[in-house]
Design brief:
By secondary structure, this protein is mainly alpha-helical. It contains five helices and two strands. The chain has a two-stranded antiparallel sheet with strand order 1-2. The longest helix has 23 residues, at 91-113. It is globular and about 45 Å long.
Length: 152
């Protein structure tokens, strides 16, 4: 994964609520799957995609019925990733990518209606806007530093 993409994910994570964080994990998994399909550090990217799926699996709340169905999907995706790692084939990766895309799209719809606050407290506020021209975007980080960090 490129450094600029890592920075983008880090920034988004610092501003995300629960459902947005789930969408971000799906998107990270898709980046790893795409790179594995393109044969860029295949074993490493498959391992990272599996770590994303494991994180999603660990965060399931079994008080709700969809959790059981999601668990079965995550187990299936994990099996596909193991097959791809062991066999060196791309077909299991493309099937896993298709499943993760559909899940990401559905969670994206849910996250649009979720107005809960971000999970990370005391994070800097980030503002983006057009400042020098219609094609240039600059990101400015809020300068209110008094509320950041650990409170004793």
């Amino acid at each position: 994964m490129q450094d600029t993409l890592k920075k983008d994910f880090t920034l988004r994570i610092s501003q995300a609520n629960r459902t947005e964080l789930t969408v971000i994990i799906y998107e990270m998994c898709l980046v790893y799957l795409k790179e594995a399909i393109e044969d860029v550090d295949r074993a490493e990217n498959i391992a990272r995609a599996r770590a994303c799926i494991d994180e999603l699996k660990e965060s399931l709340n079994f008080e709700y019925e969809p959790a059981r169905q999601l668990l079965h999907l995550y187990i299936h995706v994990n099996k596909l990733l193991v097959q791809a790692a062991a066999g060196g084939r791309t077909e299991p990766l493309t099937e896993a990518e298709s499943i993760v895309k559909r899940l990401r799209d559905e969670f994206q719809k849910i996250s649009e209606s979720d107005d809960s606050p971000p999970l990370v407290h005391n994070a800097q506020e980030v503002y983006a806007g057009y400042t020098y021209g219609k094609n240039d975007i600059n990101v400015n980080i809020g300068s209110d530093e008094k509320g950041r960090g650990f409170l004793a």
